[in-house]
Design a protein that fits this description.
single chain; 95 residues; alpha/beta; globular
Length: 95
């Protein structure tokens, strides 16, 4: 018997919205993640979060806020209990 195929979602590390108001940008980014999690809940098995200290695209403002994975994953684990969560990248040298 074949193992069950599982699917996961890679949570974005930083907002791509480039509006000036950083609080508004952060709120929209947070809401986008929650909205997407609400849609994939029950359809995907897991989600991953990265640990990038700054946005990796060279054309982005390097001071753009990024998500801290352990805090994000802990919150999502409590909110979406039927899914599994893990980091996709951890900056070991930083930690």
């Amino acid at each position: 018997m074949a193992a069950r195929l599982q699917f996961g979602w890679r949570i974005p590390d930083f907002p791509e919205d480039r509006r000036e108001d950083r609080h508004e940008r952060a709120r929209i980014f947070r809401d986008q993640i929650f909205d997407f999690m609400d849609v994939i809940q029950g359809h995907f098995d897991m989600a991953w979060a990265g640990d990038h200290l700054f946005p990796w695209p060279a054309d982005m403002d390097q001071s753009t806020e990024t998500l801290e994975p352990w805090t994000l994953l802990t919150f999502l684990m409590a909110r979406y209990q039927q899914m599994r969560f893990c980091p996709s990248v951890l900056n070991q040298a930083f930690r």
